[in-house]
Design a protein that fits this description.
- This protein is about 50% helix and about 15% strand.
- It has 13 helices and nine strands.
- A six-stranded parallel sheet has the order 3-2-1-4-5-6.
- Helix 9 runs antiparallel to helix 10 and helix 11 runs antiparallel to helix 12.
- The longest helix is centred in the middle third of the chain and has 29 residues.
- It starts with 8 loop residues before the first strand and ends with a helix.
């Protein structure tokens, strides 16, 4: 089968916080791009750059050599794929479906099994946030047949560094492993700060000490948020709790006993209930410190 080459028609579905800069990079690389987003206003900048804006996911996918999705969660993917005007009906045999959201391996394989015969599927979730999406320096975990991942590379290499993890679903699986660590580490930072508060140790001293510990990379990335109290989202807390739930679901289905992940999930649930869903996922630190 022919590879997807630059200038091939690509449909990009989901132009939110991460999807918009990713789609912009594909445009700048010379791909002919058709975009769709539930909130149409989020496609305006891409339209000004030359993207075609579709009225539905199926219209976006019609005639495309590859369809890329970057969506919030599994229900969102189901809706845009199989709901009214869904893109699945427009996929042709031999076309590529590149799923870049965080949905977990079980759901990825479920979606793949419902697509028309002959559609090639690559799961390619990303590690990184908005700055990396803008720079094209995302770490991409690709799952799929070797030939299918190779066919997707002219698209994926524009977005970041791609590693083929294994067969379909393996990229989605690794992303859950990584996100379990990321979500839990934010909670660990919050608990360390809360403990420091209880000893009346200044925040600056605690952060300096943690910077020299194994939590150093987390402190380096989130220290400004903590010190200013401004948690501008690069990855929202609402998405963090979604990923925490996916981790627990995957672990239960495989009978893997987890203790840290459910504890982190509970902190995120409290933060979400406190209205922090639209802030950066590190805002869970505020909830943890407020509970002492």
């Amino acid at each position: 089968m022919a590879r997807v080459a630059p200038m091939t028609d690509v449909a990009f579905i989901g132009t939110g916080l991460m999807g918009a800069p990713m789609a912009e990079r594909l445009l700048r690389a010379g791909h002919r791009l058709t975009v769709w987003n539930r909130t149409a206003s989020k496609t305006r900048n891409l339209a000004a750059m030359g993207a075609t804006v579709a009225d539905s996911p199926s219209e976006a996918a019609a005639g495309a050599g590859a369809v890329v999705t970057m969506l919030a969660d599994p229900p969102a993917l189901d809706q845009v794929a199989f709901g009214a005007g869904g893109f699945a009906q427009a996929l042709a045999p031999g076309s590529l479906f590149i799923e870049m959201s965080t949905i977990g391996p079980d759901h990825l394989l479920s979606v793949a099994g419902r697509l028309p015969a002959g559609v090639r599927v690559v799961d390619a979730p990303v590690l990184g946030s908005v700055p990396q999406a803008i720079e094209g320096s995302l770490e991409i975990f690709a799952g799929g047949e070797e030939a299918d991942v190779a066919a997707a590379m002219p698209i994926l290499t524009v977005l970041g560094n791609t590693t083929r993890i294994g067969p379909p679903g393996s990229g989605a699986a690794l992303k859950l492993v990584v996100n379990s660590a990321l979500v839990s580490l934010q909670c660990l930072l919050g608990e360390c700060l809360a403990l420091g508060d209880s000893f009346d140790i200044s925040q600056a001293i605690v952060l300096d000490a943690l910077s020299a510990s194994s939590l150093g990379p987390v402190v380096a990335k989130k220290r400004d948020n903590v010190e200013t109290g401004v948690f501008t989202p690069r990855f929202t807390l609402a998405n963090g709790i979604k990923d925490a739930a996916l981790v627990e679901q995957a672990a239960r289905s495989r009978e893997v006993p987890l203790r840290l992940a459910p504890a982190a999930h509970s902190w995120y649930a409290d933060a979400l209930a406190g209205g922090l869903g639209g802030e950066d996922y590190s805002a869970v630190v505020k909830t943890i410190r407020a509970r002492r």
